[in-house]
Design brief:
The protein contains five helices and two strands. By secondary structure, it is mainly alpha-helical. Helix 1 packs across helix 3. The longest helix has 18 residues. The N and C termini lie far apart (56 Å). This is Zinc finger MYM-type protein 1.
């Protein structure tokens, strides 16, 4: 029995000229159309928690939900963890100092392949 043809889709990286919810939602919908993916078939959306993304009135979430109420928004778990770590580090001078030194080491070593 022959397996059904499965099309692979890759959203890719898109250069955004604006970071408004309206512009980003339009870019997403345009790219899905280019890939031949009907937005009506989408059942979820997930990304960072910036106001332009998750905003309930003008963010990407709201604009996409207007077009497809079944594309429910789920916040990105990795981004949430990053925000928790950043906020926790701000509460401790030792942690701020540690991450500051770590950032300086990273900058130093990433600037040169010889290091």
């Amino acid at each position: 029995m022959e397996k059904p043809h499965i099309r692979e889709h890759f959203m890719g990286f898109l250069k955004a000229e604006e970071s408004t919810g309206q512009h980003l939602a339009s870019m997403i919908l345009t790219r899905l159309e280019e890939l031949g993916i009907p937005f009506d078939d989408c059942r979820g959306q997930s990304y960072g928690k910036g106001a332009n993304m998750k905003g309930k009135n003008k963010g990407v979430q709201a604009r996409l939900l207007e077009k497809n109420p079944r594309a429910l928004f789920v916040p990105c778990g990795a981004h949430t963890l990053n925000l928790v770590v950043c906020d926790a580090a701000k509460g401790s001078l030792d942690a701020m100092s540690y991450f500051g030194v770590l950032q300086k080491f990273y900058t130093l070593f990433s600037a040169s392949s010889q290091r």
